[in-house]
Amino acid sequence: MSGASIGDLDEDEIFELLRSKLGPNLKPCTPKQGLERYLDARRPELTEKTLETYASKLGRILDFLEQEEIDDLRDLDGRLINDIATWRRYESCERVSELSNKTMRDEMYRLRSWLSYLEDIEAVKPGLSDSVPVPELSAGDGVRDVDLDPERVRLTLSYLEKYEYATLAHVVWVLGVRTGRRTGCLVALDVDDAHLDTDEPYLEFHHRPDQGTRLKNGTKSAGHVAISKGDAEVVTDYIETTRPDVTDDCDREPLLATRHGRVSKSTIRRYIYQWSRPCVIGAGCPHDRDPDSCSAAQSMDHASKCPSSRSPHALKHGFITEGRRRGIPLDVLSERCDVSEDTIRKHYDETTEEERCRARRRILDRVADESGGGYL
User: Fold this and answer.
1) What is the reported pTM?
2) How far apart (Å, rounded) are the C-alpha atoms in residues 27 and 21?
3) pLDDT 10s digits, 38-71
4) Domain coverage including residue 80
5) Neighbours of 68 (CB within 10 A)
6) In angstroms, rounded to a whole number, what is the distance separating the alpha carbons of residues 163 and 278?
7) Smallest Cα–Cα separation from 67: which of 121, 31, 42?
8) Highest taxon of the source (predicted)?
9) Which of 55, 56, 188, 257 is the most exposed place for a label (fewest CB within 10 A)?
10) Are 181 and 338 in contact (CB under 8 A)?
11) Number of domains, the chain
């Protein structure tokens, strides 16, 4: 095109030439306005929970832009996008020194989607979304080392049974560890959903969105989950001695309750963070901190700042991982924990090939003992 005269160019080529000389006709838009517009545009296709996640995650990007005094999205360029990625990976999270490739990939895909929308409404330079660095994943990426090993779980449950027996915190830990279910499932349980006085005790999960207790996968998340007689006894003692006599706004009796009504997800999170700190169960501090001056040790509200504390998801993760190590089939774990087999393979299964081989051997040996010969 450089050697051609204006008369030799067709309409599209003239337009491209003018755009390259004059630049795009961008409209002023603040980062906050850009995010609000994006969320409104995605609202018809995303659940409210996913929208909240997008708002929270992209809200971090807004914090960075405010820090950099960017109040007009037209000022975004490739260098700033690279700075955002670097900041997000290494500086934005207090709990870890560096975000994993899996987390960064999710974050950058989310950022790219937002920038693509901003291009459509002429708020940023065309093609800016292409400059977002999305990391490649290797075979081991995407599986998180949650590192709440079975021994730590055993010590925590033993401590709670001795010193906090049948309290709300104790029952939250028992159900979180032994069911493999999400926090939302535990919150949704009513007293009548706990079938405890039977030879085969179980919990009954229901999706009740019209009454404020929806399950993540709707009716697919509903069903029965067996628990041991020992765990059923703990829950029974909690109901009879500790649980406050309260109902929720729909006149239901929540199983997990405070004096204000149904327990919240945030309360469950606080209990898991609180009791996953090694120092509070007499296991010392693996980080050589002085408990008297450590804010994470001194305050339940700061428990999540302890490097060894874990969120409720760690219990679900540990349940599935330990189940795989012991040879529990994928379909069994999938149905019990309400997680697809593919998701378990990608994000939960931390077993090594040697562990999987040993698990298969145990299953085959057991079948061979029962069959008495033949192929197996």
Assistant:
1) 0.63
2) 18
3) 999 999 888 888 889 899 999 999 999 988 888 8
4) 24-131
5) 13
6) 15
7) 31
8) Archaea
9) 56
10) yes
11) 2
